[in-house]
């Protein structure tokens, strides 16, 4: 096919930088950096798999200088050179495009955008539709009939409506707006004092740039009028800079862009040469699917030596080697994903890369109904004398001279404990290592890390156990397949450990790992095992009460609507609010055409005095409490312990905070009456009491510390009411006899500043006008200029290195800090401001959690730490020692870290509030 019907034009340069900034450093075997190459290749593969185009080309910028520099020498002059480790990847990326048999287009003197505009125009002239794969605002001028942009990262199309949302004008007027507003990134001068919003208003009124400039004397605003008159020529130059050339002389024709299958040998060679084994495996799987053949389960690489160990003598040899090496990677296989309820099926060990063993304990003990292992029953050869084998393993796992390394080790520790193998130490975790180094830049599952760091496609669980209704448990897997799968897990864990450990040293992250995250593996395992007691009868009674309240609210809602409808249906609710009741402020989803009825919409309607949306909000609150907590918590009670056992995530959040799942105990509302009732159901065991220990205003204390705010530091040091002091400083009113409303305003600003609150957001929170809220923020920064200085410094740090750091050295990636989209970039800037504060608070409570168990044990106390909920810790103590334990907990938490300045002087004290009671609600 040579006549195009649908042409895809890919902005290759945009792909390159997104790929580079989204992945950590990677090198192939010869040391060449390839992180951008890997990311680019993966994105191109996905695009090729998802697109419906019959013609395709990837367009690149060839050089930094173009014809625009002849028009305006300073064009893009301030842009820094590409990172050193990205430069050698440019030719490899073009090689990747050619390996997929896709045209790779570039031309001297022109930018990729000009070539895209030229080919788009030609395609439209031939009747084809065009999709430009990019989210670059400069390309939005091309949008129109038959031409759309597609953002592959957000998986969304950008048409005229999205362009209007961004620029306030139709696509054919975008260049007029850009010429007026200028562009600091590309050094397009524009007209000083005129932003995109004002430019859109002016173009909307005058039609185009030239008409506006000709009639500039008519502008009523003196400053704006003079700026337009003074900078008219700059605006005209800017128009030339932003307008894309669609008449570039090019040698390739559209026929040259017809899609074609890649040469399998060339593509495989490219992927193999660069060490992209996971991508190679994906390409191979697609080839099998197209050919109608079934790929065989992946086998261990030829140079790997994986063996079955089923005698005590063989096990003894492996244990002796582990002791000699002082290091062993360990992984467990089970019959369930519920760690605390799982049966140990087998254990794998690795001591040196490429050599691992699998020790089966419980294979073939249940009948495998309906299974056919190549026409024969699975051979069973479990370890001889299971009790003796477990004893040997237990001695190794407790040996203080051997480091035990796992991946997501908490799971394995629970499984081993169920089998009687407890007190495993010392330990390390490759999932945690990866998280300390790269944060949330990517996931930390073993398969993903193996592909990312080792270029290796691991055997998947489904390849050995099947999927869907036919899936078997691991104890029914034939031992030859079990050995290949399980031993590989231990081997990959060991390889990852050796690689990531070296990075830890080179990147100076040892202190963070050793003092903050690594010790938490054991701490959290013990907390998860301890669980917390809940009163099932109270929860069931609350469920009944919530159900009754929901029923009463439904009756009120139906009466207000004039008829019955499904309150839980957003579609039906939207029709009632915006079609039947004709309330204003509704928005329809472009995707579904349904009215939006999220909490923000209902909150606004309720604030305007409408009863029905207010009652729906109440109904939703009770529905969430009932479904997520009262009903779910009863179902989560462990029959063996009578307690609820959450699972903490160490490697999930961007800032280092812990997450809680199955069930989530961190999001139970604390301010509502209903939320407090749920906490009343969390109770101490008979003869015990719960202790709540909560850091007081820890994030505000950290703001005062990191920003060096003298007035706030002094207020905290003197134990004064920080919100009253802030109100006094900002609004000039005395603390004594202060109006509570004034203190509330200061409190909202204090906490809002941490999260980068806008004047609009503060206005909504305080119920005041936007100008008044803006004045509050201005006054705040005027009184505490250190805050503004901190914000600008931390944003610049993020722009320079791509991450920010907590006071304790944790690095938090801010991947969107260079995003061309202003909204995305502003969000990233707010992240950069808040992350060191929230992350610092998380680091402090981790330090306390690590220090508390040995402190309690040394004091001879039986008190146990049960829960962590953000800045709060919950303990269970025998009644007789509760007061003593609470005092010790308070002392340890307040001294877990000392916040000091450059001279070693303490800046801000930490303060902990404690409470003792029979229930969580009473203790907090």
TrEMBL record:
GO biological process, one term: double-strand break repair
Protein name: DNA polymerase I
Membership in a protein family: Belongs to the DNA polymerase type-A family.
SUPFAM superfamilies from the UniProt entry: 5' to 3' exonuclease, C-terminal subdomain, DNA/RNA polymerases, PIN domain-like, Ribonuclease H-like
Keyword terms, alphabetized: DNA damage, DNA repair, DNA replication, DNA-binding, DNA-directed DNA polymerase, Exonuclease, Hydrolase, Nuclease, Nucleotidyltransferase, Transferase
Molecular function GO labels: 3'-5' exonuclease activity; 5'-3' exonuclease activity; DNA binding; DNA-directed DNA polymerase activity
Domain called 5'-3' exonuclease: residue spans: 5-260
Entries under Pfam families matching the protein: 5_3_exonuc (PF01367), 5_3_exonuc_N (PF02739), DNA_pol_A (PF00476), DNA_pol_A_exo1 (PF01612)
InterPro entries: 3'-5'_exonuclease_dom, 5-3_exonucl_a-hlix_arch_N, 5-3_exonuclease, 5-3_exonuclease_C_sf, DNA-dir_DNA_pol_A_CS, DNA-dir_DNA_pol_A_palm_dom, DNA/RNA_pol_sf, DNA_polI_H3TH
Domain DNA-directed DNA polymerase family A palm residue range list: 675-881
Catalysed reactions listed for this entry: DNA(n) + a 2'-deoxyribonucleoside 5'-triphosphate = DNA(n+1) + diphosphate
Quaternary state and interactors: Single-chain monomer with multiple functions.
Enzyme class of the recorded protein, top EC level: transferase
Record Gene3D superfamilies: 3.30.70.370, 5' to 3' exonuclease, C-terminal subdomain (1.10.150.20), 5'-nuclease (3.40.50.1010), Ribonuclease H-like superfamily/Ribonuclease H (3.30.420.10), Taq DNA Polymerase, Chain T, domain 4 (1.20.1060.10)
Occurrences of domain 3'-5' exonuclease (ranges): 306-505
Organism: Rhodospirillum rubrum (strain ATCC 11170 / ATH 1.1.1 / DSM 467 / LMG 4362 / NCIMB 8255 / S1)
Biological function: In addition to polymerase activity, this DNA polymerase exhibits 3'-5' and 5'-3' exonuclease activity.
Enzyme Commission number(s) of this protein: 2.7.7.7
């Amino acid at each position: 096919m040579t006549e195009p019907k649908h042409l895809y034009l890919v902005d290759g340069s945009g792909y390159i930088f997104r790929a580079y900034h989204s992945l950590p450093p990677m090198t192939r075997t010869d040391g060449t950096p390839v992180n951008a190459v890997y990311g680019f290749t993966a994105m191109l593969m996905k695009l090729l798999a998802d697109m419906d185009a019959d013609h395709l080309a990837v367009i690149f910028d060839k050089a930094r200088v173009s014809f625009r520099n002849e028009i305006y020498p300073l064009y893009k002059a301030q842009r820094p050179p590409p990172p050193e480790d990205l430069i050698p990847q440019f030719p490899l990326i073009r090689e990747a495009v050619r390996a997929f048999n896709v045209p790779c287009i570039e031309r001297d003197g022109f930018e990729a955008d000009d070539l895209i505009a030229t080919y788009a125009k030609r395609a439209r002239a031939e009747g084809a539709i065009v999709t430009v794969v990019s989210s670059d605002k400069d390309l939005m001028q091309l949008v129109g009939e038959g031409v759309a942009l597609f953002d592959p990262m957000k998986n969304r199309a950008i048409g005229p409506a999205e362009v209007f949302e961004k620029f306030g004008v139709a696509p054919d007027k975008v260049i007029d707006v850009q010429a007026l507003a200028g562009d600091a990134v590309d050094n397009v001068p524009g007209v000083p004092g005129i932003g995109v919003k004002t430019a859109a208003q002016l173009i909307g009124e005058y039609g185009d740039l030239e008409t506006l400039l000709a009639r500039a004397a008519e502008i009523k605003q003196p400053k704006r009028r003079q700026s337009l008159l003074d900078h008219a020529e700059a605006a005209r130059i800017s128009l030339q800079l932003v307008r894309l050339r669609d008449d570039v002389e090019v040698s390739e024709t559209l026929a040259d862009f017809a899609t074609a299958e890649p040469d399998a040998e060339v593509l495989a060679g490219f992927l193999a040469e660069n060490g992209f084994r996971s991508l190679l495996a994906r390409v191979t799987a697609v080839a099998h699917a197209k050919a109608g053949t079934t790929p065989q389960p992946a086998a261990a690489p030829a140079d790997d030596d994986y063996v079955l160990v089923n005698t005590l003598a063989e096990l003894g040899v492996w244990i002796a080697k582990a002791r000699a090496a002082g290091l062993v990677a360990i992984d467990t296989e089970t019959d369930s994903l519920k760690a605390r309820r799982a049966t140990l099926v087998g254990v794998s060990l690795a001591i040196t890369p490429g050599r691992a063993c699998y020790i089966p304990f419980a294979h073939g003990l249940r009948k495998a109904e309906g299974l056919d292992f190549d026409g024969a029953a699975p051979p069973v050869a479990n370890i001889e004398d299971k009790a003796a084998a477990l004893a040997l393993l237990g001695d190794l796992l407790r040996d203080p001279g051997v480091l035990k390394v796992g991946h997501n080790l908490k799971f394995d520790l629970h499984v081993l404990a169920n089998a009687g193998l407890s007190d495993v130490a010392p330990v390390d975790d490759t999932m945690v290592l990866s998280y300390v180094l790269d944060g949330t830049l990517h996931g930390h599952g073993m398969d993903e890390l193996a592909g990312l760091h080792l270029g290796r496609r691991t055997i998947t669980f489904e390849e050995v156990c099947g999927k869907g209704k036919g899936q078997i448990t691991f104890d029914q897997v034939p031992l030859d397949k079990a050995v290949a799968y399980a031993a590989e897990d231990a081997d990959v864990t060991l390889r990852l450990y050796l690689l990531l450990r070296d990075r830890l040293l080179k990147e100076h992250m040892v202190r963070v790992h050793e003092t903050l995250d690594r010790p938490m593996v054991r701490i959290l395992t013990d907390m998860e095992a301890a669980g917390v007691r809940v009163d099932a009868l109270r929860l069931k009674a609350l469920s009944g009460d919530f159900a009754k309240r929901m029923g009463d609210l439904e009756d009120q809602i139906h009466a207000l609507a004039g008829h019955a409808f499904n309150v839980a249906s957003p579609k039906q609710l939207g029709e009632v609010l915006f079609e039947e009741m004709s309330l204003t402020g509704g928005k329809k989803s472009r995707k579904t055409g349904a009215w939006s009825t999220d909490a923000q919409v209902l909150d606004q309607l309720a604030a305007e005095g409408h009863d029905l949306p207010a009652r729906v909000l109440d109904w939703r609150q009770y529905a969430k409490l009932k479904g997520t907590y009262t009903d779910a918590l009863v179902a989560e009670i462990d029959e063996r312990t009578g307690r609820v056992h959450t699972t903490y995530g160490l490697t999930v959040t961007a800032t280092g905070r812990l997450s809680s799942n199955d069930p989530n105990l961190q999001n139970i509302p604390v301010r509502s009456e209903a939320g407090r009732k749920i906490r009343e159901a969390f109770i101490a065991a008979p003869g015990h009491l719960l202790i709540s220990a909560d850091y007081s205003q820890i994030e505000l204390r950290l703001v005062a510390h990191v920003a060096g705010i003298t007035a706030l530091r002094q207020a905290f040091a003197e134990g004064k009411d920080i919100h009253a002091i802030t109100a006094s400083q900002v609004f000039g009113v005395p603390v004594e006899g202060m109006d509570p409303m004034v203190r509330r305003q200061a409190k909202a600003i204090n906490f809002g500043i941490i999260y980068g609150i806008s004047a609009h957001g503060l206005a909504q929170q305080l119920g005041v006008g936007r100008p008044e809220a803006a004045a509050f923020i201005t006054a705040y920064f005027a009184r505490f200029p250190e805050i503004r200085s901190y914000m600008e410094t931390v944003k610049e740090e993020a722009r320079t290195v791509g991450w920010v750091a907590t006071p304790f050295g944790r690095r938090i990636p801010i991947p969107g800090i260079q995003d061309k989209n202003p909204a995305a970039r502003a969000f990233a800037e707010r992240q950069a401001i808040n992350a060191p504060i929230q992350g610092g608070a998380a680091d402090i409570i981790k330090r306390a959690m690590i220090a508390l168990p040995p402190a309690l044990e040394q004091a001879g106390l039986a008190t146990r730490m049960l829960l962590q909920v953000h800045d709060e810790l919950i303990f269970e103590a025998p009644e007789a020692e509760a007061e003593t334990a609470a005092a010790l907990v308070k002392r340890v938490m307040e001294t877990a870290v000392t916040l000091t300045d450059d001279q070693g002087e303490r800046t801000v004290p930490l303060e902990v509030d404690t409470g003792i009671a029979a229930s969580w609600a009473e203790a907090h």
